[in-house]
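ok new one. same drill as before - structure tokens go in, u give me an amino acid for every spot. 248 of them this time. try not to just spam alanines like last time pls lmao
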């Protein structure tokens, strides 16, 4: 797809805090429909900052973001987030039960109750979320269970773009494998997935493309099959060591 045909596109995006700290610097890239993109980099590289800008939890200090050729300023935040959904590492149910939390965004989209029930059942089955969780509250869930529920809520929306921040961080290997299979089904339906993840095996085996961030800069944008994974792992370890030494 050419530049103008990208589903999601950033042009020279910068993000700076009120205190003047640069979080993202001159970020430009485009993502096509149904792509599976890994966002990697050491702690503090800007991965979560990038996801937050893409979801419009924060606005760029400068630069442009386009969703299907429409500039972000032409789209209300509510409309944008209905199309571009973010799942952070720690998500809240806002006092709702699991069933209510998963159904709520579907109700806001005007789906009929029958379709809401069908979607919830389908994705809970694919993610292996037990039916008896539907009546549970946030306090009755572990960290890993809350993460899985937050992901179930997001995939049930079947958004145009799904943003995930370390989605397997609190999941065991079996749940992580089931999650990736569910995400593949979602991609097959046309959803674009951008995933920040420290686990390089997931980036290698699941994602088709890798964006590498370093100190807020985009330093690499390559197909995953062209990545030298051994060298990349070494560079990330070295960056983490340097950061630890700086803090010390």
């Amino acid at each position: 797809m050419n530049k103008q045909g990208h589903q999601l596109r950033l042009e020279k995006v910068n993000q700076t805090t009120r205190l003047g700290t640069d979080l993202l610097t001159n970020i430009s890239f485009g993502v096509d429909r149904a792509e599976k993109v890994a966002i990697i980099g050491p702690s503090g590289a800007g991965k979560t900052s990038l996801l937050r800008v893409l979801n419009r939890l924060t606005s760029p200090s400068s630069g442009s973001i386009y969703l299907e050729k429409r500039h972000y300023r032409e789209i209300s935040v509510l409309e944008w987030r209905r199309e571009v959904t973010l799942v952070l590492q720690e998500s809240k149910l806002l006092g709702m039960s699991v069933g209510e939390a998963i159904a709520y965004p579907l109700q806001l989209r005007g789906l009929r109750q029958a379709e809401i029930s069908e979607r919830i059942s389908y994705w809970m089955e694919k993610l292996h979320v037990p039916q008896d969780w539907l009546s549970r509250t946030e306090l009755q869930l572990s960290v890993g269970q809350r993460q899985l529920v937050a992901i179930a809520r997001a995939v049930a929306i079947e958004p145009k773009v799904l943003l995930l921040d370390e989605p397997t961080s609190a999941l065991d290997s079996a749940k992580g494998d089931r999650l990736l299979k569910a995400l593949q089904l979602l991609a097959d339906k046309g959803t674009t997935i951008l995933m920040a993840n420290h686990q390089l095996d997931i980036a290698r085996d699941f994602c088709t493309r890798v964006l590498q961030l370093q100190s807020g800069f985009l330093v690499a944008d390559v197909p995953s099959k062209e990545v030298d994974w051994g060298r990349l792992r070494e560079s990330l370890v070295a960056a983490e060591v340097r950061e630890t030494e700086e803090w010390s």
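The two ends are 46 Å apart (CA to CA). and btw The first strand starts at residue 8 and ends at 16.
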